[in-house]
Amino acid sequence: MFLEKLDPEARGRFAFLAYDQGLEHGPDDFRGNPESASPRFVLELARDFGYTAVVLQQGVALAARRICPEVARVIKLNGKAGLARGEPYSPLLCPVEYAVSELSARAVGYTLYPGSEHEPLMFREFAQVVRDAGRLGVPVVAWVYPRGKAVANDSAPEVIAYAARIAYELGADIAKVKWPGDREAFRWACRVAAETKVVLSGGPTTESRQEFVDLLTQVMEAGGAGVAVGRNVWQRPLADAQVISKEIVRIALGR
Amino acid sequence: MFLEKLDPEARGRFAFLAYDQGLEHGPDDFRGNPESASPRFVLELARDFGYTAVVLQQGVALAARRICPEVARVIKLNGKAGLARGEPYSPLLCPVEYAVSELSARAVGYTLYPGSEHEPLMFREFAQVVRDAGRLGVPVVAWVYPRGKAVANDSAPEVIAYAARIAYELGADIAKVKWPGDREAFRWACRVAAETKVVLSGGPTTESRQEFVDLLTQVMEAGGAGVAVGRNVWQRPLADAQVISKEIVRIALGR
Amino acid sequence: MFLEKLDPEARGRFAFLAYDQGLEHGPDDFRGNPESASPRFVLELARDFGYTAVVLQQGVALAARRICPEVARVIKLNGKAGLARGEPYSPLLCPVEYAVSELSARAVGYTLYPGSEHEPLMFREFAQVVRDAGRLGVPVVAWVYPRGKAVANDSAPEVIAYAARIAYELGADIAKVKWPGDREAFRWACRVAAETKVVLSGGPTTESRQEFVDLLTQVMEAGGAGVAVGRNVWQRPLADAQVISKEIVRIALGR
Amino acid sequence: MFLEKLDPEARGRFAFLAYDQGLEHGPDDFRGNPESASPRFVLELARDFGYTAVVLQQGVALAARRICPEVARVIKLNGKAGLARGEPYSPLLCPVEYAVSELSARAVGYTLYPGSEHEPLMFREFAQVVRDAGRLGVPVVAWVYPRGKAVANDSAPEVIAYAARIAYELGADIAKVKWPGDREAFRWACRVAAETKVVLSGGPTTESRQEFVDLLTQVMEAGGAGVAVGRNVWQRPLADAQVISKEIVRIALGR
Amino acid sequence: MFLEKLDPEARGRFAFLAYDQGLEHGPDDFRGNPESASPRFVLELARDFGYTAVVLQQGVALAARRICPEVARVIKLNGKAGLARGEPYSPLLCPVEYAVSELSARAVGYTLYPGSEHEPLMFREFAQVVRDAGRLGVPVVAWVYPRGKAVANDSAPEVIAYAARIAYELGADIAKVKWPGDREAFRWACRVAAETKVVLSGGPTTESRQEFVDLLTQVMEAGGAGVAVGRNVWQRPLADAQVISKEIVRIALGR
Question: What is d(CA A122, CA A112) in angstroms, rounded to the nearest whole number?
């Protein structure tokens, strides 16, 4: 509803640089490229290559307040560490109000785990996030990952389509989902998401840059609205990260 | 108490077009008729055939704000995805106040799962919904589905009658229940619901249109107040959906 | 503390007509006398035979607002359906404030299940009900049924005495307990309840009217303050219900 | 911090007459001396023999408002029945504000069960009680009983010392703990409680009065600050209860 | 963000004297040096040897208000006893506001147990603590101990690095972590903590003073910002405690 904040020309295309993996996966993600342990690495890439926004948790956003302030921030409102097993719950850590007023959020993000025993807590928090964001005029990005013992295959086509639809039913502006395996499945997910834009969740670093570029090309051909990429960019050394960033932004944003 | 909002002539008959299955069952429900993935499909049917109202979740209501605004909306206040197993809980996602002031709700809906281990949470939320709706002057529709390991057969006559009575005891204006198998059982459910109106929950698409029409006829003969139908309408291609809609509205509303 | 609302002459005797079984047990309770499915049946009996008050849930009280408004209402503040097994919890559904201001409550009722794993939730809610009712000047009736896997026999003498004492320790004006099997056990329950009045919980319909009348007589001889009766009245056809009502009111209220 | 309310001469010695066993253990505790079922029995003893205060639950304090109003009340803020098994939780039933303003509390009491799975709920409530009581100027007495499947022996010396220390770390003015078996163990508990005063929890009635008097003597010699006694007083017939009260007050208060 | 409160010269080095073990471990920790059962022991050491601050729970801070008021206090906001087994949860016991306004907190502390089933409760409380502390201008110290059945080895290098990163992602100014076994592992933890300072958690008393001094030296060489030490100081007799304090402050603060 408020996508102009992220997309002033209303082109409906997005390239997010995700940087909440230090919390979600742990700092082993930074091993291959230790420079990436500091948010400066991603903020400068975003500034230099024209990503739509960088995704940060509250603490990182606070500490990096003065780094590249011209780069738009999506504040990730909930989060959890990757240690615990069992039915996932990612609690709201940062209210929309604080993200907007203190962390200059241009958009807010929230992860949903439909199918988890704790789904009710997340659906309820997310629905409130949608209303709060609406009141404050910022768009909402939903990370939607069906998970828990009820979900056998979390990237099956019908599961990805369901993820996209849930985002729409609850009021997300943008849904971030995994790749369901082929173009037709992604196209169906985009269709059932109706007015909600669907972007690809980048996932683990692919063997080659080209592999990821090809994947993103399929996403855009299938009606996707772009990508939220992290490891595929910042796990590569700077020169590589710059090359792939140029490609990603070109394909996702079409410029 | 406030049925005039939905029923200005106080005829006590209702034909709701339910469209929350994208969340509750998932988008596979739209496979047979992909047009139905957009709320425009049901909103236009409702406009053209005189349904009492369309049932929408918060997100869909937000996204479809400008489509057929003359069609009345029942905002479904709680919801869950159909993935998780175990004792069901459908949390309140949207407060009555927001439904009325921001989503132009002409009525509100809430699903109860009596018998679930989480029944207390739903009874408590629903009782508050009744009071909030009373204060704001909108009627309350209760979806009542006894469920959980304590409920062997969720459409046994005594279970359906219990469902209808619970709606009445807690303060619903309208109860939506499943078909208990025969007319006498439905009549008893209507009787024990006292002042609360009882409508049929449409359920899965029947083999033929006629089958559903016959079922609805029995409901009305047994003292039912109409129907909340979804898949039996919008899972059919447009021409079929139009034919059955005409029949449904004629039987349920008697015109 | 505020018994004058129910007992203006301070005679300390009460005859309540309980009508929350549609929720607690289900509408099968109305099978034998279908007239009883409407609250009109009990409200007219209460009016005609001088019961102290009728006990209603929020929804019934709302729907029956205009029926016999001169009959005093005890609004039952919590409730649950009889479907679920396991440790019982009956959640607060209606705040004292609403019961008094919108439902004309002359008293409020709340069921406690001491011994249940969920006892803490109920004790906490009840203690708050006592304070709210005190502030608003209405008396509190506690239904006290020790239950859960920790309670082997829920009508053993020591269990009934404990039930009565709990009501007193938490601040109830009146405790409703089951029959502990004999007069001496009931007398002890009344003694340990100290200033809290103890009334009999009527229970299932007895074989004959006389059987119930004899039971009530024993209650009064043992120092009981009356009865809260339901099925033993309204499961009988009207003529019978009238005869037993006359007896109940005569014995319980002594007039 | 506010002990002057209970101890105007700052002598640091206390003799509490505990009367919350009707809730915690049940009315079987009154069997031997039925007079004790009414709070008048303990209130008059407290008045006649100079106990520091009587300990009452909300409901008893309300009902006994006009009995011996000159006797100081410690309002017990949390409580549970003795029926349920499993990990104990005693919920806050009465806020400090109400205890002070409506029940004339001269001090407030709260039971902690460290080691229980529900410890976090009680620690959190208790820490809030400490702050509320501080604001309102009344002292806080902590009943501290380590319990739950993690606690093999709830009166082992190291467990009693831990109990006393917990009271201190969380901010209690007075800790009530069980007898750890010998004087040295009690002395150590008093030492690690630092500024928090430690009183003996009276426990079940001893065979002879002298046995209890000897125990209390050891407590005082070990640096204890007195006793909170119940059954050892009011389970005895009046004459006996008077004799032992005289002894208790003499030893505990030193007068 | 507000480290100047603890570190006016912005040297980025800290020596905390931790004294919350009476709650977390129990008073057996004081056995070897009974003087340490009183906070006076640590407060005087802190005053005499220039520790940055002493760490106290609410109750100790209240009781010790007038002892060495010139020594800075870190108020530990959450806590639990060491009795219970199972997935740990340390609840917020003291709000930031109270710590600052009533207990003169110069900083606040909170323990996180990532990996515990109760992680969501702690992450949520901690994120709120960060915002409250920011508003009130006090720095936040996070004790970060991954734990629970999901964590096989709570001091493995990757676990310690994850602990430090979590503190950063959620907004801590200082992270307190265990020793991961070697200098390189600690250095990596400091790197991934980015702007968050990392201090060593002192742990159990080492065989010799020198052993602890050597450990601290490695911490500082690896980029650590100091230490939060407790037992290694106050479990030693006064003379020893003074000698090691001098060493600790010299190495940690570099003076």
Answer: 6
